[in-house]
Amino acid sequence: MKTQHYKNHTRYYPFHHFVLTPLTLLFLGWTVYRLDLSTPESTSDSLYALLGAVILVLLPLLARIYALKLQNRQILNEMRWRYFQLLGKSFEEKENQLKLSQIIALRFASDRELPDLIELSIQKKLSPKEIKLQIKDWKGDYRRV
Length: 145
Prior knowledge:
This protein has six helices and no strands. It has helices at 14-33, 40-87, 92-95, 100-106, 114-124, 128-134. The model has no long low-confidence stretch (mean pLDDT 94).
């Protein structure tokens, strides 16, 4: 497995990103192109097909959103546990001063640099990108969605 770092940490799921999503969008476009509003019957059929195409586009997106929301909850719990293991105290005070996107970015920091990077993120209100760029010892996340 390739070592993960800032420049290669984004992940694509080929079936979702390059097959399913483009095909559903293509089908939606084709359905819109084929809309026939010339008669009441063809309008009804066209709108029915359009509704089906919209549903087909939304289903994989919804499944992806559910997976990402669950992953975010897991990352938050992991960060709470890591913080407690490292410092022996609750993460709640720091968690309330950080945005979820910052916490998600902080998960890539090694245990050695995590406490200081948390403080820096709070003090300077670093963006997730800025947090990731500060990380010197990248802790890869090879199991994410």
